[in-house]
């Protein structure tokens, strides 16, 4: 009896491994695409974008080396004293008119109009703020001044310093009333007043007018 021959088909094990290989290659391709997206070089605009910073040379305050305020602490400087004619003082108020209850802030600026540095006492012991209306003196800073100091500094030519403002409580000053909690208020309702400032014997070239409207 002759033996029958059956056709030989693909072995199951080979089909299995071909499918596994195809799946593995597909997964590898996906991983490669993801890696390319994640680690791809950034555009030029991102690479060249400036880094934000909070410090710069331009933002460094100049007050430490180039003060613009009149010092208030006791000080002594050496050098030739300023000629009074070379010192300019200007009276300053923070507003031209004030409503009811608003206290005027008084200050002054001082400038060396000469061509050379010189020393000058700008301390509170040498400052006199005077407020007048007409021919009457209503308030003077030296009437009830406390702890005045001498502050001798070097004034640089052409440089202007401005004092820290002081508030006027809109009352009459008198040495006899310094200990009183309440002093007589000055007239308001549109009354005009003038501020004059004297520093170390140099008087402001003009007065500063302001109004009390309420």
Written description of the protein model:
With 214 residues, the protein is α+β, with helices and mostly antiparallel strands. The chain has a domain at 84-212: Sandwich (Immunoglobulin-like). It is 14% helix and 27% strand. The chain contains two helices and twelve strands. It has helices spanning 12-38, 44-47, and strands at residues 87-93, 97-98, 105-112, 118-121, 127-133, 136-140, 152-155, 160-162, 166-167, 191-199, 202-203, 208-212. Strands 2, 5, 6, 10, 11 and 12 form a six-stranded mixed β-sheet that branches. Strands 1, 3, 8 and 9 form a four-stranded antiparallel β-sheet that branches. A hairpin with a 2-residue loop joins strand 5 and strand 6. It is elongated. Residues 1-8 and 43-65 have low confidence and may be disordered.
Strand-helix topology:
Elements: H1 12-38, H2 44-47, E1 87-93, E2 97-98, E3 105-112, E4 118-121, E5 127-133, E6 136-140, E7 152-155, E8 160-162, E9 166-167, E10 191-199, E11 202-203, E12 208-212
Parallel strand pairs: 2-12
Antiparallel strand pairs: 1-3, 3-8, 3-9, 4-7, 5-6, 5-10, 10-11, 10-12
């Amino acid at each position: 009896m002759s033996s029958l021959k059956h056709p030989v088909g693909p072995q199951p094990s080979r089909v299995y491994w071909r499918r596994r290989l195809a799946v593995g290659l597909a997964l590898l391709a996906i991983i490669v695409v993801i890696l390319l997206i994640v680690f791809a070089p950034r555009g030029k605009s991102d690479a060249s974008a400036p880094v934000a910073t909070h410090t710069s040379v331009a933002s460094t305050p100049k007050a430490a080396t180039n003060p613009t305020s009149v010092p208030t602490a006791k000080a002594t400087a050496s050098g030739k004293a300023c000629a009074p004619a070379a010192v300019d003082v200007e009276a300053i108020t923070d507003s031209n008119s004030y409503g009811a209850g608003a206290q005027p802030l008084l200050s002054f600026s001082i400038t060396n109009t000469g061509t050379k540095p010189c020393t000058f006492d700008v301390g509170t012991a040498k400052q006199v703020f005077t407020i007048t209306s007409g021919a009457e003196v209503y308030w003077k800073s030296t009437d009830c001044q406390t702890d005045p100091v001498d502050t001798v500094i070097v004034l640089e030519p052409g440089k202007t310093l401005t004092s820290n403002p002081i508030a006027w409580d809109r009352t009459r000053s008198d040495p006899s009333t310094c200990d009183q909690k309440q002093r007589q208020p000055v007239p308001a309702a549109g009354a005009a007043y003038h501020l004059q400032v004297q520093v170390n014997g140099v008087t402001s070239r003009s007065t500063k007018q302001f109004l009390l409207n309420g």
